[in-house]
Structure formats: structure tokens, C-alpha cells
Amino acid sequence: MALHKLGQDPNSPDGKSPTLYYDDETDNYLIQGWKVLDQERLAQLDLPEHETVIEYPKRMIQFFPEVSG
């Protein structure tokens, strides 16, 4: 498996997150972002036990190849 870093949030205060990766073996994206802990927001989701939700800023959509061309 080879992960390719596609973009990192230039507004990140510590320079580590959020980040977008592409896995060329699975043809999937891996998104590193802020873990959603707000119970009110989580209660609105149908979230299976084995999954989690992260928050990813709209400004980072530009890093998806389908968007950037």
C-alpha cells in the first residue's frame, strides 16, 4: 500500500491536520481531521459502532483530484 499526501490544511495551527491522503492500492481517500465529540451532533447521525466521524474544512476540498482537475 502506498499512501500519497494530497494536501494539508495551510491554516492548521500546528501544521499536522487536517490532511488528505490517497491510497493507490484501494483507490480510496484517507482523511485526517478533527474528531467530532459533540454529542448533539453525533446523535443526529446513524453511526455504526465501528465507525467514527471527523470534521474536514470546506477549504480543503480543493485537494481532491476530482475537484482540482
Account of the 3D structure:
With 69 residues, the chain is of the alpha+beta class. The protein has helices at residues 39-42, 65-68, and strands spanning 3-8, 19-23, 28-32, 34-35, 54-55. Strands 1-2-3 form a three-stranded antiparallel beta sheet, with no helix packed on it. Strands 4-5 form a two-stranded antiparallel ribbon. The radius of gyration is 14 Å and the shape is globular.
- Overall, the morphology is globular
Give me the oligomer status: single chain
Write the H/E string, N to C: EEEEHEH
Helix residue percentage: 10-25%
Extended strand count: 5
Spatial separation of the terminal alpha carbons: 24 Å
Write the layout of secondary structure elements.
Layout: E1 3-8, E2 19-23, E3 28-32, E4 34-35, H1 39-42, E5 54-55, H2 65-68
Antiparallel strand pairs: 1-2, 2-3, 4-5
